[in-house]
């Protein structure tokens, strides 16, 4: 894996905050979310409710941005990609976390879904070095 990609995933791992950004009514809609997993080949995963606005917004426009803020490391990363709502039972079971029982009854709850973002491009900025890096995942 290239050094630029390694640094990107390091920022993602160290981030205190992830902002998930969709498009709605001609404006970006931003909300904090918890990253549940990432794939070094360019994918990030989140859990959400099927009844949420973000699921509806992804249905209308799957292009999203996810911004990770690593305040300690003085860096941030933006991932640009296409989001897909995943309802596959096996995948939902694989990611299920018992802490989520306050939101959903279990991995079979029809309101519990996953969002997978296939990252097409990412960029990150290192504040102290004043450097912007771009990582392209499309081939």
Structure description:
A hairpin with a 2-residue loop joins strand 1 and strand 2. With 139 residues, this protein is of the alpha+beta class. It has one domain: Pnp Oxidase, Chain A. Helix content is 19%, strand content 47%. The radius of gyration is 15 Å and the shape is globular. Strands 1, 2, 3, 4, 5, 6, 7 and 8 form an eight-stranded antiparallel β-sheet that branches. The mean pLDDT is 94.
Number of helices: 3
Shape-level CATH architecture: Roll
What is the overall silhouette?
A: globular
CATH class identity: Mainly Beta
Tally the structural domains.
Answer: 1
Order of helices and strands: HEEEEHEEHEE
Low-confidence stretches: none
First-to-last CA distance: 15 Å
CATH superfamily: Electron Transport, Fmn-binding Protein, Chain A
Helix content: 10-25%
Largest sheet descriptor: 8 strands, antiparallel
Classify the fold: give the CATH topology: Pnp Oxidase, Chain A
Mean pLDDT: 94
Number of beta-strand segments = 8
